[in-house]
Fold this sequence. Notes:
By secondary structure, the chain is an alpha/beta fold. The protein is built from 19 helices and eleven strands. The protein has helices at residues 6-12, 14-32, 37-40, 62-101, 165-176, 181-184, 198-209, 232-245, 250-254, 269-281, 306-320, 340-346, 358-369, 394-413, 417-431, 444-458, 460-477, 485-530, 554-572; strands at residues 119-121, 143-145, 153-159, 185-192, 215-221, 256-260, 289-292, 295-297, 336-339, 375-378, 383-385. Strands 5-4-3-6-9 form a five-stranded mixed sheet, sandwiched between helices. It has a two-stranded antiparallel sheet with strand order 1-2. Helix 7 (198-209) links the parallel strand 4 (185-192) and strand 5. The model is unreliable at 40-48 and 105-147 (pLDDT under 50).
Amino acid sequence: MSYSKIPAWCVQRVTSLVFISLIILLYVAIWHDRPQARHHGKASLKLPTAGEKVDDNIPLTNAQLLFICYTLVAHFLGLTFPMRLVFATRSITKKLKNELRQLPITSNVFSNLPETPSKLLESGYGHEGYESSSSSYTDESRTQVDDNDNLILHTIIIPNYKEDIETLRETLEVLACHPQASSTYEIVLAMEMGEAGAKVKAGALIKEFSDQFRDIEYTLHPNDIPGEAQGKSSNLCWASKHVNGKYLDGHMKRNVIVTVMDSDSHLAAKYFSLINGMHFRYPQTAETTMYVPPIIFDRNAHLVPTPVRVADLMWAGAGLSGHYDTSSICPPTSVYSLPLCLVDHAGGWDAGDDSIGEDLHMYIKCFFSLNGNLTTRTILSPASCSNVSTGAKGIRGFFKDIKARYRQALRHMWGSLDSGYVARLVPQMWWHPREEQGVERPNWGKTLILLHRMYEAHFLPVHITLLIIGGALYTLLTPPHLTHPLLLQTLNLTAYMRIGSFLGFATFFYLYEAYHHACVSAREGEMIKVGLAGRMEGAFSYRTRRNAADICLFPVVGILFGSLPTTVALVCHLWTLKLVYKVSKKPSWLPAGSPL
């Protein structure tokens, strides 16, 4: 590595370098600068008697002062996060209940398309950053577009890699039951050429669902592109290039909404109708808006081990924390939608090793392409997700599910590279903000909030764990009468702050019950209405009273699926950015379709 690349290498791995810096700080403050017995005599290591006076001449080193400042800041942020989470959960649950009382939204955007199209667009690209792309169905890659300003087309990209065909079939069947599917849904199965049987699998699904959507096709990401690893992010990048090439007209790109969803995600018809309503209700921000739903693990939560259930509950909570009225920053999790013109403006999805978390990475990319003026709107139609499950039974199945969830957590935490991505883009926006028509001046208020959210996601969990361990070790190694009063008070205060944080999370678990019930009952109601509920028996996971004990496992789960995989990822980033993509198995509930 040449010296000229060292700054870029450091910025990209800023989370790893800060992690190492914290370990060095803890070593110096806790071990190196602790009071030595030889300075005070052997008796000084004993606890003071009731009448013994604490030594007021104990020095406070610079490292210990820095430790005090940082541990107070980290614990304060660790206390405010559950407060915001409680506020957001209460707010969105109330809104969801209000939405359930209302009739489904209808609009003339669902009207039948004219029999004769007035415009036929050939494949091509409107952004010089895109290269030529190909679909396996090149003869069918032409898209009919109508001269109807009220027509919104929904291009739904499902990136997948080594996913079970039954999981994909179930997702498509749920989408196909939507009343607007045949007129406005264009499905793109983003496959990987390196996956054995991918073309056959996609072809079977297209044949089965060809008459239920406006269009359904697939793309195959080549497995020999330098710098692009096999996985969902590269498949999505390749598919988006194909989608972008189907529309040359800028106005049509404005009315084509691209939805990215996991292969096991289920969306209600209301999700798309709400987007349609917001798209026309806020025309001034229609081209700069990302639509984000909350997520819910409500299909097999009653069948997985408690640690897996709690881990996914907290993962859903991390997304929920951004869904409140005054929130200006709300990164997506698993499912999100945005107009094709915004995809074009941002330059599409990335496919490098540092973009494995494609949802957050694309959010950041869109955010800085607009100088921080990205609009995020909450869609009050939660995306239903499945917990990781290997299907194994007994004690062996318990540990296999734990291992699968840890592997998924490691993949999630590998996305901490996005903090380095932000660290690179912030100075660029400072020195060279984008000056294009329609792009406003840099919004530094939103940028500061984004930096705070990145710290919460990629720094705070593992840092809190290290600070707690460091404080406990110092207390164990150093008697109270040899501890500087300020340091002793800090350790006592942060202990109370952790109790406050635990109570905040306990309140969230309590409020989550109502949120979960509202989500799963709404989904079950829709499946009953369209006639799929009977074939999805057991796929509606209601919580019971025994789930109240989930909060007791929260600290353990936080370390097992949060701090531990984050630490592994940060250490591995020092020598590699590549992560071998391993698919975590998800269950399917609908009866198997036609065999391959």
